[in-house]
Amino acid sequence: MTIEKVKIGGIVYDVIPEERLQADDRTALIGQIDYEAAVIKIDPKLNSQMNIQTLWHEIIHGIFHQNGRGDQTEELIDSTAYSIVQVLRDNHALMDAVKELDEGIEAVK
């Protein structure tokens, strides 16, 4: 499954594949979020499990950024992303419950 857009708070981010990502210090990356351009870049060579974990990693960066949390560490972000992915994989009923909430909101409109 390819995810092309993710809404974080009020901002819609495009999710695009991009190889050879680098941090400002030239460290190799497998994912990166650009807040100003509203883009999340993911290395397309990742397998599906690492792709979704990396996407969640970047989403969590976006959530923390929007909440003014400049104290985020890569260890905190990564452990949170792995935990969220595992909870979602182990508890499919959670996603069903969220979908039901969305359906209820749509019915009200």
Provide the spatial order of strands within the biggest beta sheet.
1-2-6-5
Mean pLDDT: 91
* Sequence of secondary-structure elements: EEEEEEHHH
- Helix fraction, binned, reads 40-55%
- Tell me the fraction of residues in β-strands, as a range: 15-25%
Which parts are unreliable, with pLDDT below 50 for 5 consecutive residues or more?
A: none
Could you describe the largest sheet, including whether it forms a barrel? 4 strands, mixed
Rounded to the nearest angstrom, the distance between the terminal CA atoms is 29 Å
Mass-distribution shape: globular
> Taking Cα atoms only, what radius of gyration do you get, to the nearest Å?
15 Å
Q: In DSSP terms, counting alpha (H) and pi (I) runs of 4 or more, how many helices?
A: 3
Provide the number of structural domains.
1
Query: How many distinct beta strands?
Result: 6
Q: What is the SS-derived class? A: alpha+beta
